[in-house]
Amino acid sequence: MSSVFRMSPERSARVPGAMPEDRLRATGLTLPALRPVAGNYVGAYQEGSLVYLAGQGSEGWLGRVGETLTAEDGYAAARECMLHLLAQLRQTLGSLDRVRGIARVVGYVSCADDFTGVAQVLNGASDLLVEVFGDAGRHPRSVVGAKALPKGIAVEVDLIAVVEPAGR
């Protein structure tokens, strides 16, 4: 099986009831309110069909995975980060239904020096993308273990989304 995923016209065709906004409602999750940016940057930038989102942290999860937090806590923290990213993406686009795919996800996990499960922690974010976008939510990604993250958060995630033009 190839590790390269290309969105074919058949896969990108929308199935009634399977739109991202419908899928999100089906999860029972509600997107959080947008947080103000924490510095001299913007939360989102769109260039053509790409939307770049600034990192979102897990403010509800403070500490280091493998030390003060479990891997399961880290998974939940990564999922929380993705909920905030989806809120930013919806604000930027007007609807998650405009998302054609996820071009890249990067995660940072504040963890104990000997913690090696950072990839499993980031699955909290990746799994949510697949729940909401189906195959279009599958993505390449990187994850890095870190000694510390801003404000003591456990996880931070950013992403790049591929979107349809407005009015389509």
Could you explain how this protein is built, in words?
- The chain has 168 residues and is α+β, with helices and mostly antiparallel strands.
- Helix content is 30%, strand content 23%.
- A 5-stranded mixed β-sheet has the order 1-2-5-3-4.
- It is globular, with a radius of gyration of 16 Å.
- The chain starts with 8 loop residues before the first helix and ends in a 5-residue tail after the last strand.
- The relative contact order is 0.23.
Topology overview:
Blueprint: H1 9-12, H2 20-27, E1 44-47, E2 50-57, H3 71-93, E3 99-110, H4 118-133, E4 141-146, E5 155-163
Parallel strand pairs: 3-4
Antiparallel strand pairs: 1-2, 2-5, 3-5
Helix pairs in contact: 3-4
Helix content: 25-40%
Span between N and C termini? Answer: 33 Å
Using only CA atoms, what is the Rg? Answer: 16 Å
Strand content: 15-25%
Describe the global form: globular
Order of helices and strands: HHEEHEHEE
Residue stretches low in confidence (pLDDT < 50, at least 5 long) are: 1-16
- The tally of helices reads 4
Summarize the structure.
By secondary structure, the protein is of the alpha+beta class. Helix content is 30%, strand content 23%. Helix 3 (71-93) runs parallel beside helix 4 (118-133).
Main traits of this protein?
single chain, 168 residues, alpha+beta, five-stranded mixed beta sheet, 23% strand, globular, disordered N terminus
